[in-house]
Amino acid sequence: MGSILVIVATIGTSFFDRFLAMLKGALGKARQRELYFQSLAEAAPEIIWTANPDGADDFFNRRWFEYTGLSFEQSAGMGWTSVLHPDDKEVCQLKWQNALHSGHPYEVDYRLRGKDGTYRWFLGRANPVRDASGAVVKWFGTCTDIEDQKQNQQILEEQIKTRTVELADANTRLQEEMWEKDLARRELDMQNERMMRELTERSQRATMLAKMGELMQSCMSKEEVFAAAVGFAPKIFPATRGMVALLNSVRNLAEVIGSWGEGQLSPSVFEPHCCWALRTGHPHLVVAGDSTAPCGHADGVKHTYLCIPIMAQGGAMGILHFQATDEAPTLADSEFSLKATFAGHVGLSIANINLREALRTQSIRDPLTGLYNRRYLEEMLEREVRRAVRAEQSLGILMLDLDHFKSFNDTYGHDAGDAVLRQAGSLFAQGIRAEDIVCRFGGEEFVFILPTASLQATQSRAEKIRANLRELTILHRGQSLGPITASIGVAALPMHGTSPKEVLAAADAALYRAKSEGRDRVVVAGLLEEAQMAAEELTRVRNL
Predict the structure, then answer these.
(1) Does one domain contain both 378 and 342?
(2) CA-to-CA distance for 507 and 385, rounded, in angstroms?
(3) pLDDT one-digit tens code per residue, 119-154
(4) b/e for 477-509, b at 16 or more Cβ within 10 A?
(5) Residue 431: which residues within 8 A CB-CB, separation 6 or more?
(6) DSSP states of 461-473 as a string?
(7) What does each C-alpha distance from 149 to 63, 156, 281 come to in angstroms?
(8) Tens-digit pLDDT profile for residues 57-78
(9) Rounded to an integer, what is the distance from CA 383 to the centroid of its chain?
């Protein structure tokens, strides 16, 4: 106090009074500015806050307290972060720290918890306030409620997403329709081209047949007629091979007198009753593998064959024998009339012969997979079992079932299921030996007959087939159908039986175990007694 009196005495009272007046004026202006700022902050519809240069908040307007329900003490410093949404806290604090470090403004979206416990979206902005030297002396920030904009944005995004999906679906349907139309057009073009080619070939063959008929009318002997027939046959029927057989004078023997295309019959001389065509007077067709009514003179013929009687003067004088080939394994029905006409010309005395439909038997091939069918399996299994028992050799049997095929069909549709069966059948056909037989047993079940294969070799083949099947890539309408797995039961003769029924039942029981143990595996049948018990139990379960 003494010092102040000395100063006052030194500089005079008037100057000190003026100094006090100036100081009061400056403090008054600062207070006025602070009140002015607070008035503006309270009038604003947004949350307004300030912070010191270190980032500690030191002011909030009333809007902050009304929304958050926090007190100033709870909000000051970094307390305001307690109402940040947990998912937004890390990003928000990182941006705030980067702004404090760099001194640059920042802007960020985050959610704040209200006093009712719900969160709303806000747009936070902060700007630095600098002094004359450029140093940050204050941070000024706002929080703008953007909840409605966010909701509208989400609604718009959902609408855009929905519309995008609809447009993509429409585009996919359009592409599929275009693809189907293009496929149909190409199929129609191929059918037309094939039909034109067939019509052209038939026309050419019909012309050749007519020319042969004219030539035969000038023949002087039976030898000349049959020589002409053997010469014209490969020109008219290039996809088949065959021969001509004539009855002798006493009609008790038929002898092959000529052939084309390496056609053969063994023996070359046979009794008339060995040929159904000679016995019935009508053409006789035997499909490869069909044992219903084979001709005895064709025991060594493994392909489909057709015998047509050569009629003359009301009686049969011989036959024309046609054989299919590996390149053309069937004899088309459309060619029967040409063959009948051919036989009519050879006979010279057939005027109005009616070609009755040849014996039609069930095909030995499954139309979908191209594999042998169940009927052929039964015939071949009987034959192979007899052969194995007679030669005291082993015989392997695999029974395979595609896993979850019904649910697969339900998911992708029957067209996709057919594609799986076709490609699986193709894989099986390519992966077997020449002496092996693979058949479609029914539905998604397949049976393999492996002549001379031991039990160990049969199991090894089963594992290889299962592995190859898993690696098979199947595409349907441009979509991958995923991995295909199979359960396989393994059995072998003689350890699992010496009859077709026993070994097949053992393999079936092993297959049942493979499926019940989780599928996608190979299971070997137990000993004969165990396999029989398992087969009986399987039959009982299936009959429940």
Answers:
(1) no
(2) 14
(3) 999 999 999 999 888 889 899 899 998 888 888 988
(4) eeeebeebebbbbbbbbbbbbeebebbbbbbbb
(5) 464, 465, 468
(6) HHHHHHHHHHT--
(7) 20, 10, 94
(8) 889 989 999 898 989 998 888 8
(9) 37
Please tell me the distance from the alpha carbon of residue 5 to that of residue 1, in angstroms, as a whole number. Answer: 6
For 485, the domain range is 374-543
Residue 439 in 3-state DSSP?
strand
Q: Which residue has the tokens 């936070």?
A: 124
298 within a domain of the structure (yes/no):
yes
The proportion of the chain whose per-residue pLDDT surpasses 90, expressed as a percent, equals: 28
Rounded to two decimals, the pTM is 0.37
* In-domain check, residue 366: no
- Looking up tokens 């058949």 gives 439
Q: How far is it, in rounded angstroms, from Cα 200 to Cα 208?
A: 12
Dihedral (CA of 422, 428, 434, 437) sign: negative
Closest of 373, 370, 395, 366 to residue 383, by C-alpha: 395
118 and 15 in a common domain: no
Greatest CA separation found in the chain?
173
d(CA 278, CA 292): 17
Burial class of residue 472 (count of CB atoms within 10 Å of its CB; 0-12, 13-18, 19+): middle
Other Cβ atoms less than 10 A from the Cβ of 534: the count is: 20
DSSP 129-175: EE-TTS-EEEEEEEEEE-HHHHHHHHHHHHHHHHHHHHHHHHHHHHH
Please name the residue that has the structure tokens 């307290």: 65
Residue 199 resides in a domain: no
Whether 390 and 289 map to the same domain: the answer is no
In this structure, the answer to whether residues 128 and 234 fall within a common structural domain is: no
Are residues 278 and 383 both part of a single domain? Answer: no
- Output the CA angle 463-468-471, nearest 5 degrees: 130
Q: Which amino acid is at 107?
A: E
Work out how many domains the chain is built from and give that number. 4
Cα distance between the two ends of the chain: 116
